[in-house]
Amino acid sequence: MIKVVKFGGSSVANAGQFRKVKNIVDSDISRKFIVTSACGKSDNEDHKVTDLLYLCHAHIKYGVPFNNLFAVIEKKYMTIKQELNLKIDLDGEFEKIKKSMTKNINIDYLVSRGEYLAGLCLAEYLGADFVDAKDVILFDYDGKVNFERSKTALQERLKTDKKIVIPGFYGALPNGKIKIMSRGGSDITGAIIASLIDATIYENWTDVSGILVADPRIVENPKRIKYITYDELRELSFMGANVLHDETIFPVKEKKIPINIKNTNEPENHGTMIVDDCSERDEQKTPGFITGIAGKKDFTVFNCTKLNLSNEVGFLKRTLQLFEDFNINIKGIQAGIDTVNIILETQEIEEDRYIILSKLKEIIGFEHVSAFDNLSLIAVVGRGMSKRPGMSGKLFAELGLNNINIKTINQAIDEINVIIGVDNKDFEKAINCIYDRFITRGENK
């Protein structure tokens, strides 16, 4: 058995957290590949290193002194070094970084240094080999990971039986230039490494004991999801559940490598297991209707009407092209006989709202176009819904009993999820109603 383990920023925020990581890694000899984020926040007064590095870059760009900001980063890592009695030459590493902090510095290089330094410290502390991500996570020029080249590069560096520490969040282009991933990309690095070595399991260690059925900021003490499929997690992630970077699934799904979300501060908790197929478990214990509930506020609906629209060939293609021209991602489309509703994130269309509304009339030919704001979307996700006739009816009835008006409804043919739209003012109330009916009251059957 070979495990890839990734530790998030909160897991390496200070020397105390480093000690917890060591206990976790040392307790299981199969935890051979360790991926680390940059040092995160120790408390509410602290700062994430990556945030500070982005700020440093902004200061450099606009000619503002950055020394005080960078000194905070230096102190954070130096404190870890001193408290753990490490021998790493951090002074030399910091000097190298500061020499590169000129007007033309590559932002990807600068913001990746948080993971790089955390990896160096963690490798020494664990007695592991350090492998720089730029040498094994290899991108093509189109920004996609080249798995074949990356696998060869990683195998060339597995020369000992020692554990391997790899920084997350970045890799390198074919010319050797550092390229970062989107924020939270260390999750993706862990998944890539798991895929490259055909890991038995990918453990993602964070500061929560798995994925919760609902957002704890909305629902008080929500239950933990014990098992969830890749597809269910994708649906929840798309609608705002952010325990795991939503692109993490892709590298492991093809090889059906399970992901275990676990808590560095509560390692005995089994957390949440993300798998390709829950059918064997479901045969032993009938799954409930609902696996999880997630949602987002602040969507806008463009309501477009034209007589006999449903018989007009190509109108949808032209409509989609218009939004593509403005580089706007459509979140949902609902079409009727004479009407099409286009759902968009409000912040994405604010700048070009009136231009788009005008072009929908002039170019696409809609007779009437109007915009409705303050819409929230809520996804009710569950692999068990398709096996329970009347599930949607129960859901809608519960919202009706609580005087919550449903603005939009969208359900996939596989019935893995139902997405409903409600007013922003009803967002929290709706999620609590759904949770109370199907989880708290035990009617999730």
Neighbour order of strands in the largest sheet: 3-4-2-1-7-9-10-8
Which radius of gyration do the C-alpha atoms yield? 24 Å
Q: What global shape is seen?
A: globular
Terminus-to-terminus distance = 36 Å
Low-confidence stretches: none
Mean model confidence by pLDDT: 91
As a percent range, the share of strand residues is 15-25%
The biggest beta sheet is recorded as: 8 strands, mixed
Query: Approximately how much helix is present in the residues?
Result: 25-40%
- Helical/strand content category: alpha/beta
- How many alpha or pi helices? 15
Count of DSSP E strands? 16
What labels would you give this structure?
445 residues; alpha/beta; 15 helices; 16 strands; 21% strand
Give a structural overview:
Helix content is 37%, strand content 21%. It has 445 residues and is α/β, with parallel strands linked by helices. An eight-stranded mixed β-sheet has the order 3-4-2-1-7-9-10-8, sandwiched between helices. A six-stranded antiparallel β-sheet has the order 12-13-11-14-16-15.
